[in-house]
Amino acid sequence: MISKALNDLYYDIIDNIAMPVFSYGLKSVGKFLFGNQFQDKIQVGLAAIYLYRKFLETGNLKFKENIIEYNKKDVLQTYEIALWYEGQCNNF
Q: What is the pTM (predicted TM-score) of this model?
């Protein structure tokens, strides 16, 4: 039942929108659309995985806080892109 309510924005964009980007990943699309660049300690998802492992090993909450901040920015960026895409769809 949940799957009917969820939609993968990535496939909507790659199937319907052409952009001059190397990849249609979140950060590339966000940078193209809004000029956003992530200026955090974590720049890529692989680093978040590394920090999560460090958090599990050490219990250091700083690792966890960095991961949460990274994920929060990803979610907000996805929301901005979704709003932009919805606006594009409403223009047709």
A: 0.78
| Cβ contacts of 77 within 8 Å, gap of 6 or more | 26, 27, 30, 36
Is residue 84 a contact partner of residue 30, using CB atoms and an 8 Å limit? no
Do 17 and 85 contact (CB within 8 A), yes or no?
Answer: yes
CB 32 within 8 A of CB 20: yes
What phi and psi, each to the nearest 5 degrees, are found at residue 11? -70, -35
Distance between CA 43 and CA 56 in Å, rounded? 20
pLDDT tens-digit series, residues 43-69 = 677 888 999 999 999 999 999 999 998
